[in-house]
Each structure stands twice: as C-alpha cells, then as structure tokens.
Amino acid sequence: MNPGKHRYQYLMAGLAAAFLILAAQLFRLQLLDNSFKVSADNNALLYQTRYPARGLILDRNGKVLVGNKNTYDILVTPRYVKDFDTLALCRILELDTGYVRGKFREYRMYRSRIGYRTVTFASQISQEQYSRFIEAAHKFPEFRGVPRTTRMYPYNAGGNLLGYVTEVDPAFLERHPDYAPGDYTGRTGLEETCEPMLRGEKGYSIYLRDASNRIQSSYRDGAFDRPAVAGQDVVSTIDAELQNYGEELMRNKVGSVIAIEPSTGEILSMISSPGIDVSVLGEINKHYSRIASDPFTPMFNRAVMSPQPPGSVFKLVNALIGLQEGVVSTSTEFPCHNGFTARGIHVGCHAHKSPVDFTEAIMASCNSYFCYLFRDILENPVYGSEAKAMDRWSEYVRSFGFGTRLGSDFPSETAGFVPNSSTYDKVYGKGGWKALSVISLSIGQGELGCTPLHLANLAATIANRGWYRIPHIVREHGSDSTDAKYSEKHYTMVDTAHFEKVIQGMYMAVNAPAGQGATARIAAVPGLDVCGKTGTAENPHGDEHAVFVCFAPRENPRIAIAVYIENAGFGATWAAPVASLMVEKYLHREISSGRKYLEQRMLDANLLHKVPASPDYVPPKDDD
User: Fold this and answer.
1) Structure confidence by residue, pLDDT tens digits, 365-389
2) 86-93 vs 127-135: helix crossing angle, rounded to 10
3) CATH number (domain holding residue 360)
4) Is there a contact between 263 and 173 (Cβ–Cβ < 8 Å)?
5) Domain around 400
C-alpha cells in the first residue's frame, strides 16, 4: 500500500479529531458554560460588591458589646459623571460642598488609575438620608447606594477596649493586598485583635448595564452572584456590667483598672481613663483630630501601654523572694524609726509600731522592713557578689511576668522594665555600686517600670498561690475556643508554700481591727475576705500615683484587680476604694447600703485638676 496515502489519511483523521474537540469546546463555552462570558463581557457587566455584616462582639454572659446597624455607601463611577446639582446632593446626604469638590479633584487626579471602576463617594449614610436620596435618584443617575452595616454600642463603655473600625487607606492596602479600596478594617482593641474573625467575606451581584452605565437587569437571574458571608461573632471575657461600672468610677480621673479571673486569666474589665467615648467610634475620622490633640491622651491605653513605678505593691514580690531565699521568715523583725537609715542614705516611712514582723510589715506597708529585707537579698553571701545576687533577683521578678510582654491577645502590650546588674554597671561602672545604691527597688521605685496589666497579673498570681495564666480577652469565636497557650499555667520561681504567708499580710492590711496600723481598711467588704496591698508611687512631675492590688475571696478567689490612678496621692485614698467597689459589684452585683457613701465619693471625685501624667515613663526619685 502507498505509504504516502497512509500519511494523508492519518493527517486528515487528526485534523478531523482536532476540529471535533474545538467545536465541542466552543459549544460548551458559548452555550453551556457562561463563566467565560461573564469575564469577557466585563465592560457590559457591573459587579456590585455585597459587603458582609461584621461579627458581633459579646461579653462573657452573651450581652452585646458591639453590634451592627444598617447604613449605606453611595457609589459613583467617575468616568461617567455628567453635570449634576451639587448643592441638592449635599443637602440630601448632609455633606459639605468642599467635601464633594475634594472628592472629584481626587477622581480627576487619579483618573487613569480609577479607569471605569466604581468607587465609594460617601460612607455610612443613614436610613433617613438614603430614603431622601432614593426619592431624588433620577437627578443623579451616576450615583447609587449599596447597603452596609456599621457599629453600634449598647453600653457607653469600653472605647479603648473595643477599638474602632475605619476605611482602609493606601498605606494599609500596600501591606494587605487581600483588601480593596472601600473595605473597612478594625483598628486598636478587640476590633483589631479579632479582625480575621470579624471581617467576613465579601460577595457580589452581577448586573447588565447599557452604554450609559445604567443598570438594565440582573445577569442570568443571579446565577453567578456570590452571597456575602457574615463575620464570626466573638465572645470576649469582659463582664459588660463591671466594665460599665468601672468606667463610671474612673470618670474624671487619669489612670486604669484591670480585673482578672485568677483561675482562667480571663480579663473581666480593662479601663483606661480618660478614654474614647463609644459615641464617636462609629465616626472616628470626624473626631480624630480633636481626640488626638486632647492633653489627657484618650487614645493611649494606659492599662497595657503605660509602664510606671509600681510603688509599695511591689513589696509583695520582694517579700516572696526573701522567703524563698531564706533571708527572712514570718517571725523576722526589723526596726523602723520613721524609716530606714544606713551610711547616709535615708528612706522615710510613716508612723507605726517598731519593730514589726513579716505580716505586720505587709499590713502596715513598712518601708524600713523592706529596705532591710532587700539589702539582705543582695548581700546574701551565697552569691559571692551583689551583682550576681542582683541578677538572681531579676530572674525572680521576671518569673512573675514583669519586664516582659505577657503575651496577651490584646494589641500594643508594653513589656515594662526590670533592671539587672548590667543596668547599674552602665551607671556606676562595674563593681561601683552596692545594695544601698539601688535600695529604692525595695519599695517599688527606682528603675522599675510595670503596666497595670502586670500588677493585675501579680494579684492573680498571688491569689493562685504561685502561678498565672496569660491574661487574655477573647473567650471564643465561631466554633473555636481560645489558643491553648492561654490554658497553660506559668509558675514563678517562688515555692507555692510561701504565698499563704504573704496573703496573711494582705488579709490583715484590709481586715485588721482599727488601731493596728492596717493601710487598706477602707477596702474591706463584709463577707468577702478581700486581701490587698496599697501603694503610693513617687512622681517627680506632680503628685504621687495611687496604686492598689487585691483579690477576693481569700479562698477560691474569683477576681483579682489592680487600680492605678495617676497624680492621686495615697493608694488608700482613691485606688483602694475603686478596687473594692468593683470587687463588691462583681461578687455581690450591688453595693451595700453601708458603702454607698464611698461609691458616691468616687463617682463625684474630679481629679483632672491635678497635673496630667505623661504616657512616657520617667524613672522616679530614689527615695520614698
């Protein structure tokens, strides 16, 4: 048989097969599969984004902290805009004419970049405004509205805690290519922490449009539309009622409050005062300049971002280290003659009995006792030098979480500062300093810097007799629970057996009979066995800071709390009452009649006339 004829037949068979395959593919694309047409006809189709409802933020009891309300965005395709009545549109949407002119200057400037895309002209238009717009829509054919949801706040509390939602800017888009112009994202607080869960997934609807950009109909009856997927709800650890109450107590005061459930590490309340009023969160951009220029820095979250000297509450840490190192016992006594004096160094103290033992020293907050104790820690001959003893002391302190970021799920947490031997080698030269050079550390002064979160965690650690779980603010989201790291117990380097000895001193500080020198009797709540410690932190720029930490009840504690009120003076005067009222509110759900006077005094107090403390940490003086 002729070989050439075979080749010809093979060639014709191959061409026929290729033709059949191509014809079948064209038939599928043109008649059966519209996905290619949807993409190819893009100039005739309008994709209108469907924005998802953002997930809710709930408190630990299911109450809504952050909800949603319906609003609208007004969209425009700048390329198709013709002359329109600017004043009429401004009246309908309650816009300033300068805003409209500025928008269209921007559109002209970025004409080539925008092209034929539809962009957001105005955001968060109310239902009332949108109704007026619909009535006059025929006058503005190039504009149209799309439904959106914006945030609403049932409780007027927690502005710094909750954070806010704002439209993404070009800088954000460069870092997050999965977002697009017109999208919103959470900034600060829980909105930022939980953004991946809260944001949801956008969808779209496809419409046919004519050459004049007018929508004609839904494409293929919506067969290719994609529904938006709502964001997941987030259950926080916050108690809404306690948060709201704490903010009322801290009104007209500068400082912060953090309450923790000791057994879980769950944050029950986080208050920074003065803070952002939730009424402005929905329109934060309109109020940003005013808030940012406020001398009390309401956007600065003092609870996690403001490292300050802890003052006398830090004596609890030194007491535990002293017990662990064996330099003191509960029977150890030291004298106090209006303070501690050695080699020309004097640290003052208030009047009380002398000498005092370990429990009495905590109860009366004796500066002299803790100067002797701290000196014995650093001069312990076991270490051979004060520098080595100092580094060991620093390790102890860090085991309580100080000097580090605790790892909370709340953004912008600050580590604070815990000194070691190298800190003082730089100041005095190696070997040029002794225990007396750094004696201010004995009473929580000197170079120590601790945030209120650190102090609340200290209270929780003592309540747990030597361990803590990382404080966190998210309980669950969707079907997921919290990260496993928040279930892990972190033990200090101090044996758990020593904590009960310190707790006895804290209990006596609050509950000792009158006349025994207890510093925190004002914090006593009948039936709750509150255990606490006052602190007054030196401040070279004004009045001292008032500090108080406590937990309750003594057995099976349910709440640990730290209150730090800047420039307020003695801890027992302002910080202790706020803390004890919050403890009583949380555990009893109401304030007893016998303590209503104290509640009213805290609600009425205005301490803003005092010098506002700077959010930047400034080391205090080395004397009490």
Assistant:
1) 999 999 999 999 999 999 999 999 9
2) 150
3) 3.40.710.10
4) no
5) 257-268+301-604
